[in-house]
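pasting for the record
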Amino acid sequence: MQDRLVFVIGAPRSGSTLLARMIGAHSLVFARPEPHLLTPLAHLGYYANVQKAPYDHILSAEALREFVADLPNGEHDYLDACRAYADTLYGRMLSTKPEKKLFLDKTPAYALVLDFVSKLYPAARYVVLTRHPLAVFASYAESFFHGDYEAAQDYNPILRRYVPAIAKFLRERRVPIHHVRYEELVASPERHLEEIFRFLGIPHEPEAVEYGRQKPAAKGLGDPITVDRERRPTTASVEKWVSEVASDPRRLEFTKRLVEELDPDDLAEWGYPLERLWEPLEKAGGRVPTVSRPRWDRYRLQRFLIVKLRERARRHPSFARLLHTVRLGADVLLRE
């Protein structure tokens, strides 16, 4: 099944719905918006936990890990079981469109569980879309919080979550990846779409750029309102964030703090190096803030410690077992 799967990976408000509609306009691609099949699988307990559940998710996760450890092939058997579930659903949905060769899954939440998704489907093809981080945040705040940047950040620190996760995925490149930036995609959609089709191993269909000629295969989550306003990609919203930030000093200061939380290496991996991040604002005549190197705040310290502890756990199994025991004890003590 994984030879027939295409994943579009991108943060919310990065243009992933547009890209999925363009690829889905190909005669051999069946695209359904955001099925979320794999997100729950990633949080069954073996790889990650949910925060709350109507059952004892802590003991359930512990029991699952012990059970998997005794399987003939351990984690590989567990992945086979998860893959059988997903294969069945992907395959049977694809069987409803026998003329289609590939199934496209565009679920932004997958960007936060990419280690699991890439283990599950290492031979699938991944089209990664990045967009100027401040454009992503501004669109998120405007779309769901009426332009209230602080409320948007309090509800979901979207850049802090998605930028490091996608940057790590791009940096490691453990699976077939094609990376495209949103600004370049909408500026030259024909060229980039041809490159994507070549990556997917399907014939080029230049008419797919006119995605609006076709109705989406099915209704679902995503951004159909904005995308449906146009019949083909447009650059109209590329620098919308610039005017929003430049016109409000409070927003400018707020976005400066957002950028200071991000690792410059991660920004560069996205395709937006720190030294050029503010160029759109500068070209528009706006005041460019002086952004310092990331500060050692609580978030950065936590991230540093997590990375270092994980590295040591990979090298020393006994240390990994100790961490696991401490984590289980802490989970039990802190359980509500």
